């Protein structure tokens, strides 16, 4: 009899006292030092759960190739052998050979109470399938958007529709193997349902650390000096400098804004389009107003928002946008593309404005509307903080711990209390029952 079989109840869930810590295995194909929203969320989830006394294990790729076990921030990291992605040297993926066997042995040895997968790629897929075979409940959180992969994989634009459809079918097929599925927002849940996922989906925010990201207007000048920025009104973007982020729209709007307001654009992050964006700024005569901050260490990240007066994002592929939440938590007004989940965060004329993606004229007017009035900026910043408070990371951790307690292998949660699953089109709205 295996360790897994010895420790499991007849229902397949590990036996435990209701108030004892859980052993949680998180399967993810991206984790710090990777720089992306899914990796950051997974790190916060793992460390947050560990801080609450849970025994948290993360199976992820090695940051430099060789496999190893690491202990960081109260979390045990099981890093699998990895290889560089030839088309994107900064990315690494698990070497497929042996992944399934390694994950199966890990689940058998640890006997986790639940497995929480963060994608449908190599490691996460293996974690889901090995957990199902062992009778371990599986939760899957979807962060996937094909648009975020097209540039990295150099998929020609003419093939986006075909490749995207195939990628969604694959993702949905894997999602149907999970016992419970969450997404960061109701809009992301609607998108997943529209792609063919037919079971209940719950929107659980990725969350934001309200203590780490908080307003510090008195430190704005010092923060600008820290990053070598001139002391003038600053518009900020934080994230990868890649095609789906549409940073070129912010640069194209800049000359028009400068005709009416003094401003500079700070870009915190790296990516494939940096050279192209630098050339664009130079061609438009605004190179002296566009500042490339490069990779910002996590310890300095909150300070980037403190340095700004306004956060702007033109991305059309955000299932939530952690960077936007961080900006809002810091008390910044937001100008964002009216696409996917961003409208869930930006309330027009309350904490910022939306603009039609690609419409540089409207984008210009929205930026000017924020910059031209200090009183409006202050009021919108206050509203941003209030809205961000609804996404408190501690609240998200509460809900995930509840889900871990409720989920059962092979079917949706068992009854006692009913919980509405949000984010599905009306025809697909269902309820799940929670213990």
Automatic annotation (TrEMBL):
EC category: transferase
Domain Glycosyltransferase subfamily 4-like N-terminal, residue spans: 35-212
This protein's record includes keyword Transferase: yes
Name of the molecule in the record: Glycosyltransferase
EC number: 2.4.-.-
Keywords: Glycosyltransferase, Transferase
Boundaries of every Glycosyl transferase family domain copy: 223-386
Region (Disordered): 1-24
InterPro entries, alphabetized: Glyco_trans_1, Glyco_trans_4-like_N, Glycosyltransferase_grp1
Gene Ontology molecular function, alphabetical: glycosyltransferase activity
Key word Glycosyltransferase present: yes
Biased composition (Polar residues): 1-12
Organism: Marinactinospora rubrisoli
């Amino acid at each position: 009899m295996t360790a897994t079989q010895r420790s499991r109840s007849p229902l397949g869930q590990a036996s435990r006292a209701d108030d004892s810590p859980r052993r949680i295995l998180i399967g993810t194909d991206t984790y710090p030092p990777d720089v992306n929203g899914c990796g950051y969320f997974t790190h916060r989830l793992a460390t947050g759960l560990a801080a609450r006394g849970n025994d948290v294990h993360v199976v992820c790729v090695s940051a430099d190739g060789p496999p190893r076990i690491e202990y960081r921030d109260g979390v045990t990291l099981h890093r699998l052998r990895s290889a560089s992605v030839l088309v994107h040297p900064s990315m690494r993926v698990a070497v497929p050979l042996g992944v399934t066997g390694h994950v199966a042995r890990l689940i058998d040895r640890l006997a986790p109470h639940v497995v929480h997968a963060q994608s449908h790629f190599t490691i996460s897929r293996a974690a889901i399938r090995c957990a199902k075979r062992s009778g371990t409940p599986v939760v899957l959180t979807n962060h996937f958007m094909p648009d975020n992969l097209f540039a990295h994989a150099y998929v020609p634009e003419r093939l986006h529709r075909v490749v995207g459809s195939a990628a969604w079918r694959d993702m949905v097929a894997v999602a149907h193997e999970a016992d419970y599925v969450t997404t960061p927002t109701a809009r992301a849940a609607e998108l997943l349902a529209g792609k063919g996922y037919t079971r209940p989906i719950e929107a659980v925010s990725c969350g934001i650390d309200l203590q780490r990201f908080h307003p510090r207007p008195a430190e704005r000048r010092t923060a600008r000096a820290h990053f070598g920025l001139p002391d003038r009104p600053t518009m900020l973007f934080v994230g990868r400098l890649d095609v789906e982020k549409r940073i070129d729209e912010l640069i194209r709007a800049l000359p028009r804004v400068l005709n009416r307001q003094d401003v500079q654009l700070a870009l915190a992050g790296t990516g494939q389009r940096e050279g192209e964006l630098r050339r664009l700024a130079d061609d438009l005569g605004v190179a002296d107003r566009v500042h490339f901050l490069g990779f910002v260490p996590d310890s300095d990240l909150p300070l980037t928002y403190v340095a700004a007066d306004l956060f702007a994002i033109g991305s059309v592929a955000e299932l939530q946008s952690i960077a936007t939440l961080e900006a809002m938590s810091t008390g910044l007004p937001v100008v964002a593309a009216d696409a996917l989940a961003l409208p869930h965060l930006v309330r027009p004329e309350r904490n910022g404005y939306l603009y039609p993606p690609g419409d540089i004229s409207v984008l210009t007017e929205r930026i000017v509307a924020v910059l031209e009035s200090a009183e409006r900026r202050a009021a919108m910043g206050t509203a941003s903080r209030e809205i961000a408070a609804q996404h408190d990371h501690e609240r998200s951790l509460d809900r995930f711990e509840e889900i871990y307690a409720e989920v059962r292998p092979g079917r949706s949660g068992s009854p006692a209390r009913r919980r509405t699953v949000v984010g599905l089109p009306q025809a697909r709205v269902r309820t799940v029952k929670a213990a």
